[in-house]
Amino acid sequence: MNSTLNDAGERLTEALQPAKLKSVGGGRIQRMLITSASSVAAVAIALGICAVILLITDKNPWEAYKKLFGAVTEKKVQQDTLNRAAPIMVSAAAVAIGFKMNLFNIGLEGQMRVALLATAVIGASVSLPAPLHVVFCLLVAMVFGAAYAGIAAYLKVKRGVNEVIATIMLNYIALSLVGWAFDDFFRDESNTQGVLVKSKELPTSAWLPRLWGSASSAFVLSVIVLFAFWVLVWKTKFGFRLRASGGNPGAARVTGVNPSRMIAISLLISGAIAGLTGMKALMGETPHAYQNGLGDGQGFNGISVALLGRSHPVGIFFSGLLFGFLSVASGKLQLEDIPREIVVIMQGIIVLAVVIINGAVKRWDERRIQRKAAAELERLEVAATA
């Protein structure tokens, strides 16, 4: 009898292991399908609501969507989509790595702005061969983006300041600080055109080459960033600790992981990636110099794409392409006398829908796992008393 109880107890303990609980919740493919379905549902809901808005304003939603999505076959639209999607994917990766640590780095705009000016000034002051010069500029952007994010990391870890509040305030500081530094110290005084106010132009060795027609190689850079993000978070010990700390800081601390250290590192990495967000605008587009308004809005677009892509590289990739395409193809709507702002409304509804649906799906999935786990434990208890 005792041996039977011991055997049942061992089976019960084994069932409570993380791997077993994960199998109770369903396989990886099943969970991926649930996650993907929730994002697709968010897009479908957004399309439906926008169709109602178009009908109310006496516009034909069928014709509008036909014009909008019919542009996907145009080569110029495809090339411009890659250009628009590249910085959005990078900024989404920066947001997503914070999400994995249960942090919300909303300061991407400020971190990007600091990195942009620093890279423009430093990159224009050195002379290197083409490949090395490009790499050098990217490293400078990462260093300055991480350095500015480090302020928020210090406030979070040492002073307990919420990172959302800290990064929002740092955004305003960065915009004002960079604007003042640019106007007073780093304007190109040799520019006699008098129309375009910019910093000293980067040498051609620091320009990003073209990938396909008008498409910049910045898209390749964004794919590399997403791949590195996947490797770091899902294939390394650091990534496991990162996800463990974000999911349950108390349990992670018991196993020897320092949550404060993980917070600081994740914010620094997020800032470094954010620094790369503006490199397509600086190194891949005319005039290859810093100017006011360069790269505006890329950080906030990244938040939307990270939410829609569920903070996974594959999801971010396709969500970035969707947002890039919508941004490019929205101009086609004006040919049908439909305001292109309907696309902005659509993007906003997608974000709201995905947040609501993801929350509902998460609660449903947790209840499903709890029911299955309870049934498994009940079965083992019955076997133990048999």
Structural class by secondary-structure content: mainly alpha
End-to-end distance: 9 Å
List the helices and strands in order. Answer: HHHHHHHHEEHHHHHHHH
The outline comes out as: globular
Question: Average pLDDT value?
Answer: 85
Work out the helix count. Answer: 16
Strand order of the largest sheet: 1-2
Helical coverage, percent range: over 70%
SSE layout and pairing:
Layout: H1 2-15, H2 18-25, H3 28-56, H4 61-70, H5 75-100, H6 108-124, H7 130-159, H8 163-186, E1 210-212, E2 215-216, H9 218-234, H10 237-247, H11 249-254, H12 259-276, H13 279-283, H14 298-308, H15 313-329, H16 341-385
Helix pairs in contact: 1-16, 3-16, 5-9, 5-12, 5-14, 5-15, 6-7, 6-8, 6-12, 7-8, 7-12, 9-10, 9-15, 10-12, 14-15, 14-16
What can you tell me about this protein's structure?
75% of the residues lie in helices and 1% in strands. With 386 residues, it is an all-alpha fold. The protein folds into two domains: 1-58 and 362-386, no CATH class; 60-337, no CATH class. Strands 1-2 form a two-stranded antiparallel ribbon. A hairpin with a 2-residue loop joins β1 (210-212) and β2 (215-216).
